[in-house]
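Supplementary Note 3. Input sequence used for the single-chain structure prediction.
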Amino acid sequence: MGRIVELDELLAMRREWRHYGTKVAFTNGCFDLLHRGHVEYLQKARALADVLVVGLNTDASVQRLKGPHRPITPQEDRAVVIAALECVDYVVLFDEDTPLNLIRALQPEVLAKGEDYQFHEIVGHDVVQAAGGRVERIPLTAGQSTSQIVARILANSKL
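The predicted structure, written as discrete structure tokens, is reproduced below.
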């Protein structure tokens, strides 16, 4: 079994982790054009628990959220790159606009999201807290975003 898993595989592992008291952190995102900000964010999320699971938006989900020209990198490639990071234990793709169903199924002890989200905007915060878990807002690395990278590429292509 690799680090990119289907939900049923993940839930089977989750049952075992519960048995051993393994704490799970969950975060999610598009992670299109992986950059330093993404890596530092994921490292901070991993430090919150024993296992870090990353929910990755599928291409269809990214298009609905970000528009017809995104993602730049296909879901298979984004999943391989995220899974290759030392701080990421498992990657699971989801096709919905939000990871709510995934969070309900996984029941992580920690739900991590960037501090650019207000607490009440974090999808699944109520589910995690109701199960006794906690929600962590992670500081972001200033000046790092996929949108900024795309803007620089477009500006440079016009030179």
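The two ends are 47 Å apart (CA to CA). The CA atoms of residues 119 and 155 lie 35 Å apart.
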